[in-house]
Amino acid sequence: MKKISVLGSTGSIGTQTLDVVSKYRDQFQIEGLAAGSNVDLLIQQCKEFKPKKISVATKELAERIRPFLPEGTQLFFGREGLIEVAAGTDADIVVTAVVGSMGLPSTLAAIEAGKTIGLANKETLVTAGHLVTALAQAKGVDLIPIDSEHSAIFQCLNGERRQDVEFITITASGGSFRDLNREQLKNVTVEDALKHPNWSMGAKITIDSATMVNKGLEVIEAHWLFGLPYEQIQVLLHPESIIHSFVQYRDSSIIAQLGNPDMRVPIQYALTYPERWPSPSPTLSLAEAGKLQFREMDFERFPCLRLAYECGKMGGTATTVFNAANEMAVARFLRKEISFLQIEAIIEKVLNEHKNTPEPALELIEESDKLARELAARL
Ligand SMILES: NC(=O)C1=CN([C@@H]2O[C@H](COP(=O)(O)OP(=O)(O)OC[C@H]3O[C@@H](n4cnc5c(N)ncnc54)[C@H](OP(=O)(O)O)[C@@H]3O)[C@@H](O)[C@H]2O)C=CC1
Ligand SMILES: CC(=O)[C@@H](O)[C@H](O)COP(=O)(O)O
Ligand SMILES: [Mn+2]
């Protein structure tokens, strides 16, 4: 029996994780669930999966949910509550599926407690990759990627020698506005931006896909997960999202991972690794998929990807600031306070104001994150 805690259980990744768990009731047991404010769904999940510990975003929400919980469920809230669910249960594996750099303290706490990490929350690695990977190494903890591209690369690297790798290539769908030019981007709406062509995901990552920030975050995530320099990490536009990513080796072989766009596959692989179990997801038919297309990435069209590479190569607090400015700008776009193109303008302005510090400690990361958000909220 594998014991699992899910941080962000009411979100897109969280609910799909519980979907996988529900197919294997005899093999998986839910120890802890943490959500934000969707208390109705959390109550349902508690009744179904009977976690020992749960957490919600605030004390008020905790009071609201208390009368509806099965007897014996321990209830927590806020930052400490998230940490309790991450580190204070008997879970073997913690799925990190909250959104944004707010996931950092709970991820560090789970690693400190020796839990295997099923990592969906990419912002954690972008904001503090050097701290997370160093702690994981010191504690002998595995970081198993859930992000589809990184799960693909993880699988393509399996059993291979790192010195034989020439490049890894992360595929990008192009997001909701793939076929629009920059002029056409001036008037796009939030509703349009939320229509991803291939994946059904949370709002923040769907906007990130449209700005290509998601691919930028994924390049930085790959740098930390696989220990490769940015020069060996490429991005290729692939509108169908069938090839989830691939690795090119020095003997000129390319190994790719393919499948329908269904997150339950990488989620399940992270939970069962190194085993592969039958999946609820239908197997891809290449005959039905027909034509697969690929295009070079246009850095003029997608300037956020260029910015992400620049920040990644700089290291230090630059990636923390890139991520925090983006989180604030996306929240403002979703509230319809700014236009789509102002997301990238805000990120660029906040970065221009920033003085980079290499190898920052946690306190400086938190401070840089806070200052970047404050500036991005004012611009
Ligand atoms: N969705 C996808 O297919 C993919 C997602 N990812 C990554 O996975 C992560 C999650 O994404 P996604 O599932 O789409 O996001 P969602 O927005 O769908 O879900 C976010 C989750 O975080 C919870 N949450 C929000 N605020 C708090 C808080 N203060 N305390 C505790 N929990 C909180 C939400 O709870 P509530 O709803 O109750 O408020 C929800 O459960 C992101 O980092 C994303 O980049 C990576 C690859 C694919
Ligand atoms: C499902 C997943 O992993 C997302 O990160 C996905 O990659 C988004 O697609 P694009 O960023 O390629 O549009
Ligand atoms: Mn991805």
Automatic annotation (TrEMBL):
GO terms for molecular function: 1-deoxy-D-xylulose-5-phosphate reductoisomerase activity; isomerase activity; manganese ion binding; NADPH binding. Signal peptide: none annotated. Residues 143-226 form the 1-deoxy-D-xylulose 5-phosphate reductoisomerase C-terminal domain. Mn(2+) binds at residues 147, 149, 218. Its EC number is 1.1.1.267. 1-deoxy-D-xylulose 5-phosphate binds at residues 122, 148-149, 173, 196, 209, 214-215, 218. Residues 258-374 form the DXP reductoisomerase C-terminal domain. Catalyzes the NADPH-dependent rearrangement and reduction of 1-deoxy-D-xylulose-5-phosphate (DXP) to 2-C-methyl-D-erythritol 4-phosphate (MEP). This is 1-deoxy-D-xylulose 5-phosphate reductoisomerase. The gene is dxr.
